[in-house]
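[09:14] KT: can someone run the structure on this one? pasting the chain below
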Amino acid sequence: MALPCPSKIHTHIHQRPQLSNYFFQWKHVQPEIILLMVRWYCRYALSYRDVEEMMAEWGLSVDHSTIHRWVLQYGPELDQRCRPHLRPTTDSWRVDETYIRVKGAWTYLYRAVDFSGQTLESMLSAKRDTKAAKRFFKKVMKAQHTQPPRVINVDKYAAYPPVVDELNQEEGLREDTELRPTKYLNNRVEQDHHWIKRLGNQDWALAHSIRLDGRCKATKRWR
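[09:31] RB: done, structure tokens below
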């Protein structure tokens, strides 16, 4: 993976003093470098020790346990700041679910992408049933970068048709929304599952959020 020039890491970020002091008080590393390490860990299939070694190559000594604490502390905030800057998605959805291991426990992962492959939203669920599917659809519709679907491509999982009918009655979907239970149309989202499973031991929820759009500029908007 090509690394950015070290000088770019030290690019000045305009911050309000009170916000900078609140988020990065007592930190011995510059805020932009902390955010860079958090994003690298969440965006790519790296371990904490990988990030530690990468920083060491630039002469910066940071223990992997410290990076772990920063991911837990700043990951959720970075997630929230990324979302307003995600590109708008199309009205053609591909929805699928898979089974992954998170922190040693197997759980269901619901995911949706649009026609171009951009991630709409995702959700972890202990169960794979109608309630979980409905909860996921509502989460997708509430996302800031999505729009009401014209067509929803799904596999032949029996929970989806009644969920779409319920959402139509509740005026949660467009009246002309078409549900397509055709498995081959979901190849794009099924292939994208492989990237998620490659993340290994990363905090999946944070990793997915940062991965929503690799072009997110939240690390430059920390103000």
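[09:33] KT: thanks! The two ends are 29 Å apart (CA to CA).
[09:34] RB: yep, looked fine to me
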